[in-house]
Structures are given as structure tokens and as C-alpha cells.
From TrEMBL:
Domain of life: Eukaryota
Protein name per its UniProtKB record: Tetraspanin
GO molecular function, one term: lipid binding
GO BP, one annotated term: adaptive immune response
Organism lineage: Eukaryota, Metazoa, Chordata, Craniata, Vertebrata
Organism: Centropus unirufus
Length: 237
């Protein structure tokens, strides 16, 4: 009892695609949790300068990824079960969930593209404010120096990307990691550049995962509708 011929082949192909989709959801969930608890980002984004918290735009994207990964695992299981049971109701629900997920992914991709430079920019501005406070005579009354040292030690860098780094060499012995005290200003790793590398690398990884998932979802939407129509037109029913 059930579908036959090409429709039966589509049924098992859809099952395989849904299993891959379920695995992809697990991978995205795992990567999102890793990004959430990565020592570099947590050390920096949990910092507080006086009453100002470090920018949390990056974590907003991570929480979205965690939710997407969990939903993908649920939808993948739903698709696998619907394909094996040849249930039009489950396949219709699965297709609807895919459409919603695809729309959310497109929206999240647009949001990420618009904000990809803003994330690093906000963190660099936060670092510059802390750096300026650390250079002030009354810096002992705030935690600017502690914030700057955390940036330097976490990213293995020293100094901002502006004229202060070139004309104020005396702060290095106090603020920079001792292992980074090299000969000459030119040899100091730049913190602005390190911040860009930190977030651009992670966003690149997220972008690849999003493209792969989008392609899988498009195939699954097509296969689920073909299978649903095949079940409906089957002479068995």
C-alpha cells in the first residue's frame, strides 16, 4: 500500500534530504552555541565600561541562529516522518514550516548584510572609548584600563588605529601584554584590524551555512509538493 514508481523514489529522496536538513539544523545549533561561548567573543562582549555595556548586536544574531537550528531539527524530523507515513497533512505542515523558515532566513540574511560592518564598528568604538579613558589621569577611578587590557590580551593586539597609537608610546608598558612589547611602533598588532578579523571570520562561516541551508530548503519544498500531489493522485487512495 502506498505510492509507486517515480513518486516512491521521490518519497525516499525527500526522506534523505530531510535527514540532511535535520543534521544541518544540529550543526547550526552546535556552531551557534560554540560562537555564543567562544572565549574571544565572550571576553570582549561581556565587558562593561562604567554603566555602558559592550555592543550586543553580534549576540542577537547568535540567538537567532540557536532558534533557527532548533526549529530546523524539529522541521527535519517532521518532514522525515511525513514522507515515510505518506501523510498529506504532515507534508503540508512541513511545506508551510519551510516557507516560513525560508522567509525568516532571507530576512535574517538581509539584516546581517546591513549590520555586518556595524557590529565591528560598534565594538571598535567601545574599545576607543575605553582606550581614551585608560589614558586619562583619572583613569584609576574607572575600569577603562581593565577593559583595554582585556581587549589586548584576548585579541593579542595593542593600540587603536589612529594617531594616538603613533604619538603616545608610553602607555604600552602599562596596557599592552608583555609578550607584545616589540621594537618600534610598526610591529604592534592593530586592535581595530584584529576586531575586524574576529567578526568577519565568524560572519563568513554563518553566511556559508545559510546558503547551504537555503539550497536544501528549496529542494525540499519542491520535493514535498511533488510527493504530496503524487499521494493525492495515487490510485491506491
Amino acid at each position: 500500500m502506498g505510492v509507486e514508481g517515480c513518486t516512491k523514489c521521490i518519497k525516499y529522496v525527500l526522506f534523505v534530504f530531510n535527514f540532511i536538513f535535520w543534521l544541518a539544523g544540529g550543526i547550526i545549533l552546535g556552531v551557534a552555541l560554540w560562537l555564543r561561548h567562544d572565549s574571544q567573543t565572550t571576553n570582549i562582549l561581556y565587558l562593561q565600561l562604567g554603566d555602558k555595556q559592550a555592543p550586543n548586536t553580534f549576540y542577537v544574531g547568535i540567538y537567532i541562529l540557536i532558534a533557527v537550528g532548533a526549529v530546523m531539527m524539529f522541521v527535519g524530523f517532521l518532514g522525515c516522518y511525513g514522507a515515510i507515513q505518506e501523510s498529506q497533512c504532515l507534508l503540508g505542515t512541513f511545506f508551510t514550516c519551510l516557507v516560513i523558515l525560508f522567509a525568516c532566513e532571507v530576512a535574517a540574511g538581509i539584516w546581517g548584510f546591513v549590520n555586518k560592518d556595524q557590529i565591528a564598528k560598534d565594538v571598535k568604538q567601545f574599545y576607543d572609548q575605553a582606550f581614551q579613558q585608560a589614558l586619562m589621569a583619572e583613569s584609576e577611578t574607572n575600569n577603562g584600563k581593565a577593559v583595554v587590557k582585556t581587549f589586548h590580551e584576548t585579541l593579542d593586539c595593542c593600540g587603536p588605529d589612529n594617531a594616538i597609537g603613533a604619538i603616545t608610546p608610553l602607555w604600552r608598558d602599562d596596557l599592552c601584554p608583555k609578550g607584545n612589547i616589540l621594537k618600534g611602533n610598526i610591529e604592534f598588532p592593530n586592535c581595530h584590524k584584529k576586531i575586524d578579523e574576529l567578526f568577519s571570520g565568524k560572519l563568513y562561516l554563518i553566511g556559508i551555512a545559510a546558503i547551504v541551508v537555503a539550497v536544501i530548503m528549496i529542494f525540499e519544498m519542491i520535493l514535498s509538493m511533488v510527493l504530496c500531489c503524487g499521494i493525492r493522485n495515487s490510485s491506491v487512495y
